[in-house]
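JOB MANIFEST
job_type = single_chain_structure
chain_count = 1
residues = 741
[input]
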Amino acid sequence: MSPPGRPKGEFLSAQREGSPICPPGRPKGEFLSAQREGSPLSATKNLLVELQVEELPPKALKKLGEAFAAEITAGLRASGLLDEHSVATPFATPRRLAVHVTAVAAATPPESRREKLVPASVGLTPAGQKTPALQKKLDALGAGGTDAAALERASDGKQDMLYLAFTAPPRPLAGELQAALDRMLARLPIPKVMSYPLADGWSTVHFVRPAHSLVALHGAEVVPVHALGLQAGRHTVGHRFEAAASPLSIRDADSYAQQLATEGAVIAGFAARRAEIVRQLQAAAASAGLEPIEDDALLDEVTALVERPNVLACRFEPEFLGVPQECLILTMKANQKYFPLLDAAGRLTNRFLVVSNICPADPGAVIEGNERVVRPRLADAKFFFDQDRKVTLDSRVDGLRSVVYHARLGSQLERVERLTGIAVAIGHLLGADVTHVERAARLAKADLRTLMVGEFPELQGIMGTYYARHDGEAADVANAIEEHYRPRFAGDTLPASQVGLCVALADKIETLAGLFGIGERPTGEKDPFALRRHALGVLRMLIEARLPLALDRLLAAGVAAFGSVRGFADPRAELQAFVLDRLRGLLRDDGYSANEVEAVLAPGPQRLDDVPRRLAAVRAFAQLPEAGSLAAANKRIGNILKKSEGAAAAVDAALLFEPAEQALAAALAAVRPQAEARFAAGDYTGLLSALAPLKQPVDRFFDDVMVNVEDAAIRANRLALLAQLRGQMNRVADLSLLAAG
């Protein structure tokens, strides 16, 4: 929300910057138990702080700009120089980090303080005079002339202490801003620190890049602070080539962004500059009837490379379009930071957009230069593609012997052999074309030996599919080479073919089983082999593709493939717990409660494709009027069975003497056929709904029947009845976990 009087609607306005930073409130429990005086803050003005540096690392610029602003603002707020309406606006360009903060006081307000001094027995003589120890303490606080009678004497719970009550004088902005600057420099998230000498030739400082000037303005007044060997002033620099004036003298804090825009040819705000790039990209693409590639990371990086964006349209020779568009797009984005243009069908065209940092009257030379630069990159891609197709994928498989997968798990060829065995086992379970599954698994990693993937590792799988098609492999075999890496990330599509699903599952199961088997497990936030992502991929395929595969059989197939690996320990129990733990998180993210999830997973289901239906059934059951009573009874039955021994193998009707137990046995017998039929049909919701008539006989049983009677035969028979009841109730989920409390 913009403060009163803040300019609106101007693209280059100093204050039009994304979301303002709202620092946290002032820390509590400050030293000396500071309490605010009733007097208001001193008159406030807006503050600007800018550090002008050499070109900053583009991938870190956005984060650096946000942290620069946040740390300085937090320091000022902790000092009490800001009020609740103060707003910080960050600025960040390739050559500067800055922040504009509204309503900054010139000094802190006076504070009433109560300082704990020394024990009274130490600070006062028997005659009540100050001892040297007390005098030293008072001198350190600047209150050496305070009379002993002016001190407060009170117990701290252990002994009598002396206290000094006084009003601390205001602290000027300069000192507090200096402390905030020092804090910022110590905490800034610098990816790699540089060391460089100052102008004196002796001193060395450490920062992300050499700094050249520091601006600190409170209104129009310079705040006398320093940083990195620089004294604050009001001068900065504009655009390296197009500034109207250099150096640029900033009149006051509020004119900073506007002066940089009009006199310095710089859009200071990261968000504003990014928005301008997006606007120009969309306009340039629309004029050609095309669409630019959407890539937020590329947009952020390009925004961090320019201070005055100017989007220009360029072309390359149509002959390069014979290369797979993924290769051309990647080389243009990764190497040149260009924005390829697509037609309405999503196909790559021979046109692309460049974000230039200069705005010449005639952009022809800039366009020609970029077209000339991209040509050899595209020619390299074409050369790699042409050379790779001269050798079949199948002939490359043996070369994987020289590619190390893991020091303890062998080469990529050994991995492919394990992968193939697991994929074939899965193919048999799913009734897939095992010949195609085996072929796809054998070729899945072969493109790691190609020139194109060697240059662009991001294209593994994608290039394998292109080369397999060129070699004449079956369509599902070729597609499975790319599909077996899916899902690569949250929300990614699953393999579209059955062959692809078999190989993708095998790839992830092989990775999980192998690395768990040699002790390479995720710890805390560290997961260098992305095992959590692999487990989530397995879960998504099993559940979303509704694959009728038992988790324990999958893991058994994975573990069996490592029989010849030295030092491999069977990790199935731990791995199953790991996968189910990931499933808990996945289901909680989908909106299911912890009780619902645990009710379904506690019995340890192996067919995970059934889990969504079981959850839906549990949620529907919980809405029934009888649900609470049945869940509580289920929990009670579980506790009884845990504490009792000797339940009969079957219920003997001749031993059912009480009317309540006879009624329960009859109700259970009446429900069983319908429940069995619905369970067989996979109608879990219907099965749990069929349990509703059991509420009254169950309640009556517990009201009228004692289970643990002295007669062993009757007791065993009643326990058997309860065990049958609980088994029938818990076929879908452990309903006891839905009980309140």
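[summary]
DSSP finds 26 helices and 21 strands in the chain.
The longest strand covers residues 44-53.
exit_status = 0
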